[in-house]
Structure prediction request, 495 residues.
Amino acid sequence: MIVRTRVAPSPTGDPHVGTAYVALVNYCFAKQHGGRFLLRIEDTDRTRSTAASEAVILEALHWLGLAWDEGPDIGGPHGPYRQSERLEIYARYARELLENGAAFRCFCTPERLDAMRAEQIRNKRPPAYDGRCLPLTQEEIAANEAAGIPPVVRLRVPREGSVTIDDLLRGPIHFDWNNVDMQVLVKSDGWPTYHLANVVDDHLMEITHVMRGEEWLSSAPKHWLLYRAFGWQMPQIAHLPLLRNADKSKLSKRKNPTGILFYRRMGYLPEALANFLGLFSVPPLDGEEMMDLAAMVERFDLKHISLGGPVFDVKKLDWLNGRYLREKLDVKAFVERVRVWAGGEDVIDRIAALAQQRIERLSDLGPLCAFLFAGRVEITADQLRAGKLDDESLRKAFVLALAIFDALPEWEFDAIAAGVARIAEIVGAKVRDVVRPFYVAVTGSPQSLPLYDSMVLLGRDLVRERLRVALERLGGATGAETERWKKLLEADAAA
Ligand code: GLU
Prediction:
């Protein structure tokens, strides 16, 4: 048997360090066994998937040095490797499930499903499909279809009994069927959900080992049913513990930067970040934790993964990165890294063009441009408060900015400017008054290089982090405030 593993990110945002960690585990496992590592793009969520996100995911994984043997950019014998290009395949397998009774058509309206869920919650039962469409006869189905009601396809789940699934990390896990929902497999627009596409692809792409985040653990029994219905062998599976903050809470961007490209922008070396992520699944050799990819492939061991949750300890990453900078690069290589990190001549030209208009002596360049080469900038709440906005408006403006900027399909000047104008409108202030605290947050000073150009140059990840720090300086926002303020965006979009 040739070991085949994959990483299967959904292109719905910036690449997450968790994806890098999962990719690294799959890479090391495949390579250690002389196997192949695949990249598959799971873009069946049409409203959230973007080509731009796919491009940065590929870029980030490349940067980390995790080369795949088959994937959407390089092809391979089991392509296409992008799910949106495989719709006919899923349709064929969905028909097979309907024919052999493993799935059924469901015509329930969204209103009925909402009412059903509300009732279940009232009765303190977990929300789950109640099986209303299970007993529909062929005639009823035909009548619904003739009436033009678009069905979804749902998985038929036994109402009694249980299944035991072996997890390579956790051992046998027991699932009672009555806790497993009758998952939608095909949406009413004909697109498959993750579950159907994932199982069909893992089989057709001959994946032997599925190693994925533990958030997918509850999907395992559904996938088991699908493998059984198709008569296929289920790959071996392992659910990897999620990365955690030092306080053991789930790593989330509200508390910490989670984007791979943030770490690149901060000036971590890819080999240091890969090494750091590898330490969760690779034991050190004689106490030495510094290892290149080849050494990690050799020493990788699933048993080394602690289920308690790997802690993303930035101090450790700093320490390791410092060692890489000092110990692994001669001066020439170091200079070359700095050059690449700074963005090369094109970026220097762009910065110079912005700065030229704002200096009196060349020696003003250093202080004026330093923020473009820094990580976080030193700011105080008083600096942020010095303008016209009251505290609540300030905090609201930063919460809105984080949400709006995250959702921008492209990180570019006009979109950023439009975002800031929208924030001004929502908080009921002049754009000028909103721009001021953003200047402070992003550049460290109320006057600097043009704000939106600077934001483009800094990149979304670093801007996000500086805005997050600014919000923190102002005391942060509670979960309820964040929700309430984000709702203003929906209302605003609907208007
Ligand atoms: N598309 C899923 C994700 O984004 C993949 C989960 C899996 O590996 O099965 O995490």
Remarks:
- The pocket of glutamic acid is lined by residues 8-10, 42, 194, 198, 212-213, 216 (CB under 6 Å).
- The mean pLDDT is 94.
- The chain has 21 helices and nine strands.
- The chain has three domains: 4-84+244-320, 86-240, 381-494.
